[in-house]
Each structure stands twice: as structure tokens, then as C-alpha cells.
Amino acid sequence: MHFTKSFVAAVAFALASNFVVEASPIPSKAVEAYAPMGERKFTAEEIDHHEGLFKRAFPGVNNWNCKPSAARPRAVILVHGLIGSEDTNWAYMSPRFLAEGYCVYALTYGQLPGIPLIAGLDKIETSAGQLSTFIDKVLASTNTTKVDLVGHSQGSLMPRYYLKNLGGASKVNKFAAFGTIAYGTTLLGIAPFLTGLGLYDPIKKIVDPICKSCFQFLAGSPFLTELNNGGDTVPGVSYHFIQSQYDEVVTPYTSGRLRDNNPLVKNIKLQDLCALDLSEHAFQMLDPIVFHSVNAFLSPSEDQTINCLDALR
Description:
The chain is α/β, with parallel strands linked by helices.
């Protein structure tokens, strides 16, 4: 999940616009040409053009000729959050992982027809199937048996479905994530507020066609209940889950913690690494302290002492 306050406002406006008809001085021809995002049609050329711009900005990611080294024996797969993509979510971290010598891969999952460039919108189960296919491709390309995962927001949640239900436990060694959503979010209390007003189901009916995953990661959803039933981790995989006390999307932030009594699980409060770190949900993607914490987890040979000084390197 990759929300900002402006995105929440945009969603609220979009919902309101379903009920409001207003006069407009825009010429009728321009009005007739407009289509809601979920109904817009983009040509293959337009999509290829935008994807080409992103790929030129991030050379080295998804290099199918890359072979892991003795120092970096597993490929790292980056898993974006809601409304992110393989490019937009990792502008800061992907070059840094490449500079550390990893074979770095990233996928864009959960896209819906007619909505290019943003993703994570489809059902989480469907997205997990896409991750499964992508991981198999990476394993075959690198001639390895396991990968490491790094996820943000929904990228902390969707892979857990893959690990538990799609055979991923045998193919993943380490799973690091930040802005985590282990037990969902109340969205600052908005979800229970809507339930109290009897608006939860009507609004879900409006949102589902353009974001099938959105209501899946709300606290208490049937998806989360099933996913966490019997334990929230799988044997053999090491977990490194980072939460920020200033997270305004995952609320309360403690719902991002895994609860299994598993020696391979480590929950980290970002402010325990550096009390001065004010990163909320989205800014964790740009946080050097988060990056160095993840890098130390993936590579035990790295300095394991992470503190405020890591913001300077």
C-alpha cells in the first residue's frame, strides 16, 4: 500500500464525484472525450513510451544476464506498494542495491485494464500468482534455488500470501519489508467510522472496480483473517519487518508487526534505530536508515549497527 494524504483526498473526491453533477464551461467536445480512469484506453505505443522512460531512468534492474556472486549469492526482488510500480516505488533504493553488488529485479503486479503506470490494484491473490511466476523466472535466469524479497507496504503483505499458499516458502530465504501491514489498517479510524455509519459496503461497492485490493488490507477483513489464521509466518524464511510510529497509513502502526513466536522473525521500530527519524509511510522508501537496515539484514557481513549516522551515508 502506497498512500499519501493527497491520494486519500483524491479518492474521497473521486467517490464524491459519483454523486455530483456540475455544469462546466468546457466545450462539449472536450467533455465527450473525457473518460474516468478505469475506462480510459491507452495505446500500446503510449504505454511503451512511458515504460521506456522509466527503464532508461533505472538501468541495471531486471538484467537477465546478471549472475549472483559469492558475496551476494541470491537475487533481490523488489515488491512495490499500492499505486506504485517496479519503477516509481524504487527510485531511491534500486540504484543503491545495485551499487552493493546485488542482482536486482522488480516486477509490476496487480494492474487493471485501462489503468496503466499504477498497480497493486487487483486482488492480492491474483498479484501473488504474478509474483510466483516472476520469482520462478528469476530463479531460472540466475540458476539459483532461492531469492530474497524486499517489500514496501502492500509489498509486505502480498508476498506473505505467496509464501503461505503458493509454495513460496521453499524459494525465499529472507523477506525484508517496511511500512508493513501484517494485521491491516484502520486508515486513521476511517474504516470503523464508515462501518458505524453503514457506509462501508456502499463505498466498497464503488471502490472495488478500480481497486480490488483496497478493502483486503483493512483491519479485520476476511482476507487478513484467513491469511493470519494458523500463524503469520512460514518455517524457514527469515523476516525483517520495519514500522514507523509516524505511519499515517498503517494505523495503528503496531498492526504492522508479525506476531508469531518465531526465532526467524524480527520486528523493528524505525525510531528505535534513530529517534530523530520522522519518516512516515511513503518516505520510508527514501530513507537511508531503512535501506541500511535492510541491507544489513540481507548481508550479515555488513555493519549490523544501524543508527542515526546511517542517514549520512
